[in-house]
Amino acid sequence: MEALGRQILVEFYDCDESKINDVSYIENSLIQATKASKATIISHNFHKFSPYGVSGVVVIAESHVAIHTWPEYNYCAVDIFTCGDTIDPWVIQEHLKEYFESKNVSSMEMKRGMFRMPEGQKLLFKPDQNLQPN
Description:
Blueprint: E1 2-13, H1 23-36, E2 41-48, E3 54-60, E4 63-70, E5 75-83, H2 89-100, E6 104-115
Antiparallel strand pairs: 1-5, 1-6, 2-3, 3-4, 4-5
Helix pairs in contact: 1-2
């Protein structure tokens, strides 16, 4: 079986409350972690809730990195989805753990888009086709 992509569902516990309630800090952290993985950033959008919480997404040519924070619980939920095999999503997770000063992390990886391919054939994935936003 071949997979189109990998998705990591991450839960960051015991984070620094002020960092995960700061929309600028969250945005910069996700962008820097994504760049560290060598993913191709297409766009990003973040929103600060009142009085607590931030939600946001970094759209990458290889898929996306999304976050929702609950500073009042020192908790973040992050979804890291990468297509193809050129980007290591675990690099993003490790950078975010440091940025948020998370003391406890729970992660689960899923293979997405599973296909049985004929012997000797691979799934076609051409990330260069996705580099320009529509």
